[in-house]
Amino acid sequence: QVQLVESGGGLVQAGGSLRLSCAASGRTFSSRAMGWFRQAPGKEREFVAAISWSSGSTSYADSVKGRFTISRDNARNTVYLQMNSLKPEDTAVYYCAAVVKPGPGYDYWGQGTQVTVSA
């Protein structure tokens, strides 16, 4: 079993920054990739960013390119999401997720952390 715990959410003014963290733990944690998703009220969950655990290659949703940066610390089993130039439309619950097993889709999810951006 793998546990993912997000932290770093909060309330920030438009144009501000936040850094989210996701710490992974479990008996044996070996991730293929990790990602960040978000869900705003009344909307479906959407992809934000992902990173390959081995190569460090990254991908981003168009809506956050140039503003958000995903990174990882292999030694700490932690993935980060640096969010700059935040906009009110970035307001959502942010979830991290891990790909551990072969095949499509994410296998484990965190409980989420609220990010609120005021105008």
Overall description:
- This protein is mainly beta and 119 residues long.
- 0% of the residues lie in helices and 54% in strands.
- It is built from no helices and eleven strands.
- The strands form two sheets. Strands 2, 4, 5, 6, 9, 10 and 11 form a seven-stranded mixed beta sheet that branches. Strands 1-3-8-7 form a four-stranded antiparallel beta sheet, with no helix packed on it.
- A hairpin with a 6-residue loop joins strand 4 and strand 5.
- It is globular and about 40 Å long.
- The relative contact order is 0.32.
Largest β sheet strand count, sense and barrel closure = 7 strands, mixed
N-to-C series of helices and strands: EEEEEEEEEEE
Oligomer state equals single chain
Which outline best applies? globular
| Helix coverage percent | under 10%
The number of helices is: 0
Instruction: Give the helix/strand class.
Output: mainly beta
Low-confidence stretches: none
What is the percentage of strand-forming residues?
A: over 45%
Q: How much is the radius of gyration in Å? A: 14 Å
What is the count of β-strands? Answer: 11
- Mean pLDDT across residues: 94
Q: What is the CA–CA distance across the termini?
A: 40 Å
